[in-house]
Amino acid sequence: MKPATLLRLALAGSGTDTLRVVFTAVSSALAGLTVLSAATVIAIPELGGPDSGSDGWNSQYRSSLLAEPGLRPGVVATLLLAAVPIVALAGQCVRFGSPGRDRRLAAIRLAGATPRQAVLIAAGETAMAATVGSIAGLGVYLVLHRVLHRPYADGRLPLPTDVLPSAPEVVGILLVVPVLAGLAAVLLLRKVIITPFGVVRRARGRKPSVLPGVLIIAGVFAPLMIRPFGEWLLTQNVVRGSTAFLIGATLMIVAAIVGVVIGTGWIAYTAGRVLRRYARRPGALLAGRQLMADPWSGSRTFASLLAAVIIGAGVYAYRSYLLTMFAATKQANALAGDGGGSFYDTGFYLGAIDLINVTIGIGAVIAAIGILVAVAEGIVSRRRAYAALVAQGVPRRTLGEALAWRAFAPLVPAVLIALSVGVGLIRTPLPAVSVTPRRCGGEPTQCVQLPELTLAVPVPFRDLALIGGSALVLMTLVVGAALLVLRTSTDLEELRTG
Amino acid sequence: MSTPYVLLGLLASAPRHGYDLKRAHDERLPLAKPLAFGQVYATLGRLERDGYVEQSGQDRAGGPDRTWYVITDPGRDHLDEWLSAVEPPAPHVTSTLFSKVVVSLLVADAGRAREYLIAQRAAHTARMRELTAIKSRPGAAIGDIVAADYAIAHLDADLRWLQTTLLRVADLEKEVTG
Amino acid sequence: MTVLLSGRDIEKSYGPTPALRRVDIEVGEGEIVAVTGPSGCGKSTLLHCLSGIMRADAGTVTYRDQDLGLWSEARRSELRRSEFGVLFQFGQLVPELTAAENVALPLLLAGSGRREARKSAMSWLERLDVGDLAEVPPGEMSGGQQQRCAVARALITAPRVLFADEPTGALDVLTGEQVLTGITEIARDRGMAVVLVTHEPRIAAYADREVTLRDGRVDATGLGLGLAS
Lengths: 498, 178, 229
Hints:
The complex is a heterotrimer of chains A (498), B (178) and C (229). Chain A is mainly alpha-helical and 498 residues long.
């Protein structure tokens, strides 16, 4: 198939397709904006070498996150990581089918398109929309660049609005976003079969294996291994903080997160079983059966919400650790007679953590939108069945209840597990802070070591409740919107053929 | 005209007298023109002359009405021949077609009826194909096309009736032989 | 006459409901075969299996000595834009494309350039008397015009077998006649085989011979009489 043909077929949309295209474009614009911001931070010139100390700082920026060259990579990494779920969201829009698109793709398959060609055409629409979106994102970026350039009284800047990424970088970003969105779309169409008679979702009939459950438990206990693992590494003459150590630690964290994410299928299935067994209301029973029949529907975005919860919990646990460390050093200094201060710029560290939390929050919102897209798509693709149910007398209310149960029954246990895993990841290797204060007289040789001071790191229950609560609130909003979609989809007009 | 064959068919199952034959004919073929007694005897006379039926005794209780007639072996053969022959599918075969189907079932040989019906349908469809080819030929005159249309429409109607009849066959068979 | 396409012992069920039970059928080169029977007898399913649109549950479909059951979905799809033409009652034209684009679609999917594909499409549309509708989307045409575009699309790749499923079902008598006459003329011209599914004897009369199905089985009597023979 020549590219011109692909283009023509991908763009042959109308009506409801416009909504999908707009959604894709907006997500891509957001993704483009995020990546451009990361590129801007990268564009801040390095003033010195690794040993330059504060001479190497770009002091025109107020925030040390931007000024200190050692911290900027972290900012860039966070921004790029944040862009990933946004691009995934853009790709996920391809799943939002419509009767028009289904008919079109079926007719194209009948004319002799291979399944792969049909997928390319569907993903092509995503890529086109993403191109438009990323160009729009560039426009927004340029406007913001101009508008947010507001120096403080001392001439310093809040944001890096004095640098621009180079032209090749910009073009590269404009190309990369649509390509990634297109790839994400192709990946997400794996479960969708486009036949010459219509589009069907391949529902998995099998019960999810318990293996992910095992993975979750392994993930929870993995952090226990971090300290002995570190000690083993030390015996191997591996320096603490070196690459190998970091890689090992990262792998373990990733394993824990992946375990929870994959385990969502098992969680959903088990929640379904529990509902089937103990529920009384018809809505809950229906939800139980639906969960058991198709535990994976929408679960990928559900999983990304959980990932956000895990990371958020971990960050708050780390914050708790930092606070304890500040308190410990403060106490140590007091005992050492150096006054009550601490060496650390607490404001800076805590500010950095808050910034990370904001990013995670945005990621969670993106994930919630993704869940809404998946749930809405599921409703729309089953609208005939739903409309028939309503016509036969099943009250809309019951269907709505089933929807709510399906969303919350797996969510509550999953969030609890995610919170514990997140906290556990940080807390298990770092359950307490130990400091050894030294009281010194006038000469360094007269220092006396005082008994070790250990403070246990408290579990930040309040913050965790905040995270869990936010996840539930987000889900409530999603369910609310989905109920509206259900309302319009069960219009009896849907029962007419064609 | 198929009246001789209908009478032969009626006689194939059992001997009857003239009055009975007329009654049976009108009952079994209600939409056909009712037979006049004169026609019955004229036909019976011809059949007797041809050796297909013979008189088998008189019912002394009345006059000629009570003469019993019975089918002969040549008569049976003659009937068989007629039943095996496929009606040339042309317009206006309906009544003969009708008779033949009914008589086939009257003779109550399911296998024979089956064979006839299959052959008749094949003949109809073959003729429809011929006519369609005539119609579709490039340069066919409008007169040919219109005539072919007419024939095809009637053949189509025949086939449709045949199909429906077979769906009702159980009832029809009971009625005819009962 | 060489056998071009054949089905042996074909079985197909939709869930628990059997649609085809051990059906045998052969189509020779250039032969026009009608598949008839009452609605629900499995004729459309047989057509879908023979054309490779669906895979039979059991039995073999052989085209030019190759077992289509062994072919991948992609390869069978490619057949539909090279050697097989497909013509349905409705649902085959893409509503958002123009007539010319619809007709050119199989060629475009096979990798032709837009210009050549369009040229072929125009010539077929003109041959079927709908050349002036080339830039019109199917939604704005009459049923007969749509069907003629569909015929053009089915024939543009010069297929060796045309699969037509009730092609005149939605058309009035005269328009249907035009479509069928057109198809059979082209078929005879090019030695193209046709598998024509219909429940009407009048339409079946355009074929060289007939295969009747009933309840998913071949009915040699053609009348639904006692299949146990």
